[in-house]
Amino acid sequence: MNRRAFLGTLGAAAMQPARRPNVVFILADDLGWGDLPCYGHRNTVAHGGWLVRGELKMPHLDRMAREGTLFTQFYVASAVCSPSRAGFLTGQFPSKLGIHDYLATPDLNRKRGVRDSLDPSVATLPALLRRAGYATGHFGKWHLSSGANAPKPEEYGLDVYDECTRGQKERPLSSERIADAAIGFIEANRARPFYLNLWLHDPHSPLHPSDESMAVYKELSPRWGTHRGAMEVYYGVLTEMDRQIGRVLAKLDESGLSSDTIVVFSSDNGPESGLIPFVSHYGGAASAGPFRGLKRSLYEGGIRTPWMVRWPQHTPAGRVDNDTVFAAVDFLPTVAKLAGVSVPAGVDGQDLSGALLGKRAQRTTPLLWENRYPVYGHVLDQSPMLAVREGRWKLLLNPDRSRMELYDIPNDPSEMNNLAGQQSGVAKRLASKAIEWQKTLPPGPVDRDAGKTTYAWPGGR
Question: What is the CA radius of gyration of the chain?
Fold first, then answer.
């Protein structure tokens, strides 16, 4: 080959576009920030008057943290499932889409002023990527459509869809079914870019782990009768979930696709309250880590969840990002940037792809939340109705400006020191942003106990 032909070959190679990254988005259901060993899960528990080691075993997610970047300031778009999922898919604050609570029956949705389904005319990440040539699939929980006339998954840009559950009796097999389906999808689409939602049903109730899954935690079983301990049950589910995630990661490695695939792991909201009857037997085992709040609460424990990204040769390995304020609404514009896809109008998130590549990526827009319903938990978890995070500051308040609470989150992540009085200018500025934003949202009923700290104080205080 002469010099001219050689240079021509180099030029042609340079013009070939790099393979667009695959995306595998693993989303747990009701998993708390503190439910992962790599996020500091407590591993010493009191048992029979002694302190014993009750280490939660999740080696595959531990491995994912070692091989990727772990973010500690990640926020979902809502403290409850359906709106949280809408935020991930659309890049928009879900309240403005008419989804401010979980989707139920059409009658209950109507009473609460909630849409029956996510409007399929709203741009979603799978639809954007499918138009760009991606294969798209969803396996596991959906919870964005309800009713007999619900839009079909294809209308949201999904080529393949399966919730992977076959009724209550087979619910314990759901994580395995989802992993099986995901592995099949990867095998079928390994030659082209693909986007895959792997949305687990676990550890949402009801939990029925196998005896094999719980066997490693037998030291946490009660010392009387045949009852299963809360931690024995909960940890068994988490370990089985982790095992199935490991199978998917192994498939990517075996297929030679790991360096071409962005794998993301997160949870849709904080842990469920032990005061809900059908989860009371294990509610105390879940953990929001160092945070106040849980599912449905706008305190950190309800909306701050794990966020890990593995993308070998692109995302730094073993890195902990304590600085980037990353949010669910940023997922769409960030992936769109990496895939070379244009972002549609109306998106509330921003491109933070630099953070995935180990670079500094600073948020320039505020994050906003609304909750029109009470928080089922301890009185200290019952947050106001509105919240806004901008820079280091987070303000919570009710629309009538009652319960105004301002926290310096990097220095007070447990939200214990209310600075609204000392930083009145900051509090007023953020209050105005939150209230003006709420005025733009679709109107609807508000529960009479929303934003209240309700407790049956003796004597009626």
Answer: 23
For residue 155, which of 81, 76, 89, 83 has the smallest C-alpha distance?
89
With beta carbons less than 8 A apart as the criterion, state whether 379 and 454 touch: yes
Give residue 111's domain range.
Answer: 19-364
- Listing DSSP states for 243-268 in one string gives HHHHHHHHHHHHTT-GGGEEEEEEES
Domain boundary among 306, 329, 364: 364
DSSP string across 263-285: EEEEESSSPPPTTSGGGTTTGGG
Instruction: Tell how strand 319-321 and strand 50-53 pair up.
Output: unpaired
- Separation between Cα atoms, residue 129 and residue 194, nearest integer Å: 8
Say how far residue 314 (Cα) sits from the centre of its chain. Answer: 22
Say how far apart CA 9 and CA 223 lie, in whole Å: 73
Q: Are residues 263 and 188 in the same domain?
A: yes
Q: What is the pLDDT of residue 11?
A: 42
452/400 Cα distance (integer angstroms): 12
CB neighbour class for 242 (10 Å; exposed up to 12, middle 13-18, buried from 19):
buried
Where does the pLDDT of residue 389 fall: very low under 50, low under 70, confident under 90, or very high at 90 and above? very high
Main-chain dihedrals φ then ψ at residue 186, nearest 5 degrees? -60, -45
CA–CA separation, 222 and 237 (whole Å) = 18
Q: Which two tokens stand for residue 392?
A: 């280091």
For residue 39, is it within any domain? yes
Q: What φ, ψ does residue 15 adopt, rounded to 5°?
A: -80, -15
Here the CATH number for the domain that contains residue 341 is: 3.40.720.10
Residues 349/331, Cβ–Cβ less than 8 Å: yes
The answer to whether residue 209 sits within a structural domain is: yes
Distance, in Å, from the CA atom of 24 to the CA atom of 183, rounded to the nearest integer, reads: 11
Give CA–CA dist 85/76, Å, rounded: 9
Beta-carbon-side half-sphere exposure of residue 46 (alpha carbons within 13 Å): 1
Entry pTM: 0.92
Out of 37-46, 181-190, 244-253, 378-387, pick the least confident. 37-46
Select from 338, 364, 390 the last residue of a domain.
Answer: 364
**pLDDT(54) > 60:** no
Q: In the block, which residue shows the tokens 């953990």?
A: 287
